[in-house]
């Protein structure tokens, strides 16, 4: 019951955050140089035609009136209309958002598959050869940019070994899974070093605790102590680290989507910026912001599930 109350409180606290996001997104888009009406009509448009289109789009209204109209439409799920694509913005985002979600989920899964075993091995063999290797190699790759890692993976596993497609997302479930592996690994290689360092430090701290020493004294096997007792307690702080970095990567997936030609909202964002499609840019920016908020909420909820003290505070 207390856990549900905690979740409800967190959901209620998101309301002013979401309102603030809508306010910031709306006014930041208005700071972009250029007239949307003139952009839509082209360089040969007459001033009268531009003026008429501005009236049709409501761009002549005061900003506060435009914002209230935007907010009213937003509350009904209407993100506006793209005159560049001649389609509702919600439909454009709905077609590309699943690809970005696939990318984030695959990146998170590969990050956990890489980071958790390596961090546990490093902590269990502290200051040994394996620990030094695990600490050195991932950190050495931490400074490598995601676009370079993606290109290297394409060259090796896509073009040379021909194990994975080099671009696109496919049309079937199998093709989706096959096409998202290299982009997911690209994200994991940039995120795993941070999680390895955090989880290793937490594991070392937990393994020196009194209850771990007692568990060893009772004859419990090392693997059971490490995996059954130490890992869960060490994961509490690392969950926050993972959540914060996933939230950060949510807005930077456009780089990976561009490298692998994935039709996600990051790719759609770039195309919309190049085409001066302001309603779509505004809608995608808002969706990105909401995704970051949702990731942070899931992080807090997971943290509360692992640490009961959070729910009682």
TrEMBL record:
<feature type="transmembrane region" description="Helical">
    <location>
        <begin position="136"/>
        <end position="157"/>
    </location>
</feature>
<protein>
    <submittedName>
        <fullName>Peptide/nickel transport system permease protein</fullName>
    </submittedName>
</protein>
<keyword id="KW-0813">Transport</keyword>
<feature type="transmembrane region" description="Helical">
    <location>
        <begin position="101"/>
        <end position="124"/>
    </location>
</feature>
<feature type="domain" description="ABC transmembrane type-1">
    <location>
        <begin position="97"/>
        <end position="299"/>
    </location>
</feature>
<dbReference type="InterPro" id="IPR045621">
    <property type="entry name" value="BPD_transp_1_N"/>
</dbReference>
<dbReference type="Pfam" id="PF19300">
    <property type="entry name" value="BPD_transp_1_N"/>
</dbReference>
<keyword id="KW-0812">Transmembrane</keyword>
<dbReference type="InterPro" id="IPR000515">
    <property type="entry name" value="MetI-like"/>
</dbReference>
<keyword id="KW-1003">Cell membrane</keyword>
<dbReference type="Pfam" id="PF00528">
    <property type="entry name" value="BPD_transp_1"/>
</dbReference>
<keyword id="KW-0472">Membrane</keyword>
<dbReference type="GO" id="GO:0055085">
    <property type="term" value="P:transmembrane transport"/>
</dbReference>
<keyword id="KW-1133">Transmembrane helix</keyword>
<comment type="similarity">
    <text>Belongs to the binding-protein-dependent transport system permease family.</text>
</comment>
<dbReference type="GO" id="GO:0005886">
    <property type="term" value="C:plasma membrane"/>
</dbReference>
<feature type="transmembrane region" description="Helical">
    <location>
        <begin position="12"/>
        <end position="32"/>
    </location>
</feature>
<feature type="transmembrane region" description="Helical">
    <location>
        <begin position="177"/>
        <end position="196"/>
    </location>
</feature>
<dbReference type="InterPro" id="IPR035906">
    <property type="entry name" value="MetI-like_sf"/>
</dbReference>
<feature type="transmembrane region" description="Helical">
    <location>
        <begin position="278"/>
        <end position="298"/>
    </location>
</feature>
């Amino acid at each position: 019951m207390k856990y549900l109350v905690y979740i409800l409180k967190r959901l209620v606290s998101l309301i002013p955050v979401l309102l603030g996001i809508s306010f910031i997104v709306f006014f930041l888009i208005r700071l972009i140089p250029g007239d949307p009406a003139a952009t839509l009509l082209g360089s040969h448009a007459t001033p009268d035609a531009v003026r008429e289109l501005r009236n049709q789009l409501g761009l002549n209204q005061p900003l506060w009136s435009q914002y209230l109209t935007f907010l009213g439409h937003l509350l009904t799920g209407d993100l506006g209309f793209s005159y560049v694509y001649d389609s509702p913005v919600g439909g454009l985002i709905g077609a590309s958002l699943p690809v970005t979600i696939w990318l984030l989920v695959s990146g998170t899964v590969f990050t956990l598959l890489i980071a958790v075993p390596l961090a546990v091995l490093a902590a269990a063999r502290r200051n040994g050869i394996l620990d030094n290797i695990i600490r050195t190699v991932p950190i050495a790759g931490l400074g490598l940019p995601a676009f370079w890692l993606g290109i290297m993976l394409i060259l090796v596993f896509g073009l040379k070994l021909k194990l994975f497609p080099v671009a696109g997302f496919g049309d079937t479930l199998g093709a989706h899974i096959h096409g998202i592996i290299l982009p997911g690994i690209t994200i994991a290689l940039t995120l795993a070093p941070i999680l390895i360092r955090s989880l290793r430090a937490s594991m070392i701290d937990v393994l020196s605790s009194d209850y771990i020493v007692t568990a060893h004294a009772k004859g419990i096997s090392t693997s059971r102590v490490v995996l059954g007792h130490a890992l869960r307690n060490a994961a509490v702080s690392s969950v926050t680290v993972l959540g914060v970095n996933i939230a950060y990567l949510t807005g930077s997936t456009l780089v990976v989507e561009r490298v692998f030609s994935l039709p996600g909202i990051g790719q759609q964002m770039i195309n919309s910026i190049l085409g001066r499609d302001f309603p779509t840019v505004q809608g995608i920016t808002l969706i990105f912001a909401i995704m970051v908020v949702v990731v942070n909420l899931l992080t807090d909820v997971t943290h509360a599930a692992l640490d009961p003290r959070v729910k009682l505070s």
